[in-house]
Amino acid sequence: MRYLRMDEILRLLFEIVEEYGGAHGIRDEGRLASVESAPKQEIFGAEQYPTIHEKAAVYMRNIIGDHPFSDGNKRTGTTTAAIFLMMNGFELTATPIDLEDFAVSVATEHLDIPTITAWLTTHSTKV
Question: 86 lies in which domain range?
Answer without folding.
Answer: 6-126
